[in-house]
Amino acid sequence: MIYELRTYHCVPGKLPLVLKRMEATTLHMFRKHGIEPVGFWTVVIGESSQNLIYLLRWASMAEREQRWGAFQADPEWLAVRHETESDGPLVQRVSNTLLKPTAFSPSP
Fold first, then answer.
1. pLDDT category of residue 86 using cuts at 50, 70 and 90
2. CA spacing 20 to 30 A to 56: which of 22, 63, 68, 75?
3. Which pTM value belongs to this model?
4. Which pLDDT belongs to residue 60?
5. Where residue 34 falls among pLDDT bands split at 50, 70, 90?
């Protein structure tokens, strides 16, 4: 099992639009492509309150490459992304880290 920790560093003031897109569209697209989210968080206290942080679960790196690649190339996702960013980008940058649980990590 591999986990992917993703942080969307949003353009100031655009976090509500990112959250709306995630809930209204992106989650549907994740289900369509078999992408399994574990959870989503926003920052209460920390470096920036303009971040969306979420965790995805993958069976393997090969599964991640196949499913994430299909999601990113999906014409429906590309159209939604283009439409929701017609006034400019919502996210300044994306950080991601791939994590492997330790032997003593509680099972999910």
1. very high
2. 75
3. 0.91
4. 96
5. very high
Angle subtended at Cα 2 by Cα 16 and Cα 103, rounded to the nearest 5 degrees: 125
CB atoms near residue 20 (< 10 Å)? 13
- CA distances from residue 48 to 13, 21, 28, 57, 103 in whole angstroms, order as listed: 12, 20, 27, 25, 32
| Complete domains list, the chain, with CATH | 2-99 (3.30.70.100)
Q: Which two tokens stand for residue 94?
A: 């994306």
Angle at 40 between CA 58 and CA 11, to 5 degrees: 110
- What single-letter amino acid sits at 108? P
CA 31 to CA 51: how far, in whole Å?
Answer: 23
